[in-house]
Amino acid sequence: MKKLNFNQGWKMKELSGNAWYPVTLPASVMNTLLDAEVIDDPFYRDNEEKALEVAQKDYIFQKEFEIKKGELEYDHFEFIFHGVDTIADIFLNGHKISNTDNMHRIFEISVKDYLKEGTNILKVILYSPIRYIESMHEKDPLAGVDHAIQGYQHLRKSHSMFGWDWGPKIPDLGIWRDVELVMWNDNRIDDVYIAQNHEENHVQLDVKVTLHNQKNTNLRLSAKVISPGGIEEEQVINQLNQLEHLSFLIQDPQLWWPAGYGEQPLYKVEISLLNGEKQLDRKNYTVGLRTIEVKHEKDKWGKSFEFVVNGYPIFMKGANYIPEDSLLPRTTKARTEQLIKDCKAANFNMIRVWGGGHYPEDYFYDLCDQHGLIVWQDFMFACSVYRLTEHFTQNVQNEAIDQIKRIRHHASLGIWCGNNEVEEAMEHWGWPKKAEWRRDYIKLFEIMLPEVVMEYDPQTFYWSSSPSSGGGFDEPKNPDIGDVHYWEVWHGQKPFNEYRNYYFRFCSEFGFQSFPSLKTIESFTEPGDRNIFSRIMEKHQKNDDANGKILYYLSENFLYPKDFDTLLYTSQLLQAEAIKYGVEHWRRNLGRCMGSLYWQLNDCWPVASWSSIDYFGRWKALHYFARKFYDPVLVSLEEGEKNTNIYVTNDHLTEVKCRVEWKLRNNKSVILEHGDVETVIPSLTAVNCQELDFSSVLTAERKRNCYLEAILYINEEWYSSTTVIFTKAKHFEFLNPHLTSHVSENNEQIMIEILANAYTKYVEIQLDPDVILSDNYFDLSANEPKIVTIDKSVLPETITLKDIEESLKLRSVYHITHESQLETADISNG
Ligand code: BMA
Question: What's one GO MF term for it (predicted)?
């Protein structure tokens, strides 16, 4: 078999226009016009509006290619379009060879009859997705979200491209994945399915290979399994049938573990189709040996929702992932890799691919395999009604088969989920309860998709909707059964402590918005726009009146910030505190609650949103908080009306011997009371180590100037620390901490030592260029220096110690209302 990559040498123009632009795939209309400087950056100010005009038109992508004599001698020629976005007719030398209307499908088009010697022309005409959905909406209006262009659910194109409550309306068009031309004689490998059966001390790998046809030739099939250490085992079959089974027994298997629980060893599986010594076709896979089950069983609290990996019930820690860029060709492996590394750095072990976007690239899953993130994979349906016409049914069934076959061998794949919030929406969002809508729901998500999963990936658990209690419109929001999306904090404007009223079995969505940093806002604004209620700032806030909501929560918790930049900073503190409040509570209830995935990890453009990492990859305060609240061993303080409890949560598979030191201190960090407690925390357990009653010491006045600090030592080594105050931050009597810094270096790292002379919270270090620090937004007690490090490997080589010193800016909660350090020249560097 010969495979030619067909990504190079395309050109594109508006269908009725004359100007051609050169294109390399993957490509989109908007991105091509942007590169050619025909349109302005759609992310800048209100340019999004112009993007809609672009998407109203039709376009043509064209490529000419040569076929030499002799090359036409293959028996079969096939174009593979790995992704067309979305409505297109495809022509080869004037013959229509296919039409597409699903960006989530892979199209294989047989073209032998239309190829010719000499110059060939391949044309893809892409039609406006907006015109299509508008006409469909007119015929059959369906319930859905109102921040997307109406009718979006009729088209199998990423819903959020039509607008979402964090996403712009940029329904771009393009050929968003590779195009290949494959040619072969005799036969080729159509499909490989790898199943694993785990027994004590060994794993049996079953490899099922399907060939394209039954032609009786003298071909051979070779299957090799190569261990992480390079040990190879080969099996060969002669006299092939169209379907062949091979089975490998792997003794003493090296198991794959989610991050935080062990290594991620990967085995290679290489399948070759041979004619004599000549290799006709080959497919390579990497697999990880592990079992992932989801337990949904009755217990004393309701019905569980618990991931069991290699036999151990594991608390899932992570966030929800959305498309990384509204202009799809701009996503790259390097960007995704950084994001996945950022997840790992924040102690995630799970990432949920949310159903309103698209199925990510192969490298996304490879990276999750390598870094130990379990993927919760939604099918691409979200918050909408879908009608099962004959065509739609066939279309989504083929889509599911394409995607399952593409993804199923990945070690990281942990669950298939039918949709995002459709069951809940149909039951609780006030939509008309039409019988035909509900019937189609059941057919699609509770009959068809589970059947397809059962047929093509029977080893992966299927869950019909998120959230759900198991389906059938049976209390999808029940907090004690299945998974839950909890939005009363934020959308319902309830206070953070509302989280503590729930002991969800698995909280797969909850979130809180913040603004991105000033640098990010500068990328899309003019100075005059930098007010959160300006027209442009509101254009970059897609959740209705959410800027007001941020201000409301701000009024509840912090003093009124002194300027725009401080408001951005404070909004991030609110967000970080909110999510921490929920996560720490659920982790204190480990065993009953078995997962927390906050909404949302990333952004697809610069915007105010629920993300913990902004469009440019900048970590918000929340991401630094996540690294701490998702630490495998967590010390957390549950302050109450009367008592304060010190909890230690241990996610490890082994027990942890620890000591927790606690100090009740005033705002100058003078110790009023102190003590310590030694305990052994069993594996996979949370323990309330000590209940402290400060009711006699903490008078109303002291509540405004005292804090509790807990320091966790593991094997007598400092591990982490945390503090809690007993009043809202806005009422706490913070003193000027007079922050100072000292910067030094060794071969590998830059060290920044920060010192405060009074207790302060949320110390932020800002640098130019942006770098990820070992910690940020941390609390400091007086006269107890903290050293924050930067790995030199992540710094541009040209950056010197002096650059770091000069760009370093510090602020903390005190500076919400007071001039920050830099402005008062308070820093004594060096
Ligand atoms: C959840 C998600 C998204 C949405 C988010 C914030 O419901 O599934 O649809 O963006 O909330 O509202």
Answer: beta-mannosidase activity
Q: Of all protein residues, whose CA lies closest to atom 10 belonging to ligand 1? A: 165
| Nearest ligand 1 atom to alpha carbon 491 | 12
Q: How far is CA 438 from CA 354, 423, 442, 556, 579, in A?
A: 22, 9, 6, 41, 34
Can you give the pLDDT at residue 830? 34
Q: What residues line ligand 1, using a CB cutoff of 6 Å?
A: 164-166, 354, 356, 382-383, 420-421, 485, 509, 599
Closest CA to ligand 1's atom 3: 165
Are the C-beta atoms of residues 416 and 379 closer than 8 Å to each other? yes
pLDDT at 794: 87
Mutate to test the pocket of ligand 1, among 147, 354, 477 (most ligand atoms within 8 A of CB): 354
The mean pLDDT of 325-353, rounded to a whole number, is 98
Q: What's the gap in Å between 164 CA and the centre of ligand 1?
A: 8
Amino acid 826: pLDDT: 42
Please tell me the distance from the alpha carbon of residue 542 to that of residue 607, in angstroms, as a whole number: 8
Q: Which class is 735-830 in CATH?
A: mainly beta
Answer whether CATH 2.60.120.260 is correct for domain 2-183.
yes
Three-class SS of 410-474: CCCEEEEECCECHHHHHHHCCCCCCHHHHHHHHHHHHHHHHHHHHHHCCCCEEECCECECCCCCC
607: Cβ contacts below 8 Å, ≥ 6 apart: 166, 167, 168, 516, 540, 541, 542, 615
At 44-84, the pLDDT tens digits run 999 999 999 999 999 999 999 999 988 899 999 999 999 99
Calpha distance 425→156 (Å, rounded): 20
Gyration radius of the chain's alpha carbons: 28
Residues 6+ positions from 788 with CB-CB distance below 8 Å: 751, 752, 753, 754, 765, 773, 774, 775, 776
Nearest residue by C-alpha to atom 6 in ligand 1: 165
The fold for domain 188-287 equals Immunoglobulin-like (2.60.40)
Q: What's the gap in Å between 795 CA and the centre of ligand 1?
A: 35
Protein residue with least CA distance to atom 12, ligand 1: 165
Residue 823, pLDDT score: 42
Query: How confident is the model over 419-423, as a mean pLDDT?
Result: 98
What topology does CATH give the domain 632-733? Immunoglobulin-like (2.60.40)
Read off the pTM: 0.97
CB 737 within 8 A of CB 761: no
84-93: per-residue pLDDT in tens? Answer: 999 999 999 9
Q: Could you tell me the distance, in angstroms and rounded to a whole number, from the CA of residue 165 to the centre of ligand 1? A: 7
In the prediction, which pLDDT does 366 show?
98
Q: Which fold has domain 305-517+551-629?
A: TIM Barrel (3.20.20)
Q: Where are the domains of the chain?
A: 2-183, 188-287, 305-517+551-629, 632-733, 735-830
User: Which residue, judged by its Cα, is nearest atom 1 of ligand 1?
Assistant: 509
Residue nearest atom 7 in ligand 1 by C-alpha distance: 421
- First vs last C-alpha separation in the chain: 65
Question: b/e map of 670-702 (b: 16 or more CB within 10 Å)?
Answer: eeeeeeeeebebeebbbbebbebebeeebeeee
3-state secondary structure of 811: strand
pLDDT above 60 for 100: yes
Query: Is the per-residue pLDDT at 375 higher than 70?
Result: yes
Q: Do residues 77 and 111 make contact, with C-beta atoms less than 8 angstroms apart?
A: yes
